[in-house]
Amino acid sequence: MNKRSHLGALVAAASLFTRLPLWRLRTLTKEDYEDALSWWPVVGSLTALTLAGSYWLLAYLFPIQVAVVLALGCRMLLTGAFHEDGLGDFFDGFGGGRDRERVLAIMKDSHVGSYAVLGFVLYYLCYVGMAQTLLLYAEGSAAIEGSIPFPWVLVAADLMGKFASQLQVQLLPYARREEQSKTQVVYRHTSAVPLLLGLGLTLGACTLSLPEELGLLRLLALAPLGLSLLLIAYLRRRIGGYTGDTCGALCLLSELCYLAAVLAMYALADHYVF
């Protein structure tokens, strides 16, 4: 039996989430990949900082919309569109599948269907539109003094997505037989310490991204966790558990939900001012 290692699990998580050749540092075992769940938010810090840092640099050269789109592209280069693949399969599977077996079969198929294409278009239109609108508050908000810490909003959104996916695995069984899985891995539930570490990183980033002037409106930052519970209940009813594709989908949908929540905070804050 292979000995389980926190370092191995961390490298496995980084190998799954990024294209960095960290797997060359050590020989990874199946157990390492099974334990990778514990380190999702930690590796998410790398992808989140890549997204935020890319935007921060690109915003000096390009308009807001262009900088946001290019920053998303930089993250995709780092991750290999790992979560985007899951989101597309999720849209296709649940859009075209009528029963559990058909949903799982469609998600396993590598072809891209019309539901995935439409889902991607709507997702990124919403993402870029929300980001651009949120940045306009940096110039015109009557409730908030100073600029909006937008890079930290991106970091918090990414980490919130990683933690939401981690939560999904904690609460749902695996939905299909191991031999049908793309990765041949069924994640083990994480212990309390890594779970609290992920939550701490996520809430810390949220705190940095939300000014004190927002007051109790900052509780809306928990909206992605509410979305997670709703999607978990939906997955339990439709397929009886989770798959890797649903983890990727929940990660990106939670990011979008966080952006929408922050946008709602500023809109409500301005409304109360007037």
Average pLDDT number? 86
Structural class: mainly alpha
- Portion in helices: 55-70%
* Total of helices: 11
Query: How many structural units, i.e. domains?
Result: 1
Tell the overall outline: globular
Please summarize the sheet with the most strands.
none
Q: How much beta, percentage-wise?
A: under 5%
The span between the termini is 65 Å
Model regions low in confidence, pLDDT < 50 over at least 5 residues: none
| Cα-atom radius of gyration | 19 Å
The H/E string reads HHHHHHHHHHH
Number of strands: 0
Task: Give an overview of the whole structure.
It is a single chain. The chain is mainly alpha-helical and 274 residues long. It has one domain. It has 11 helices and no strands. The N and C termini lie far apart (65 Å). The relative contact order is 0.15.
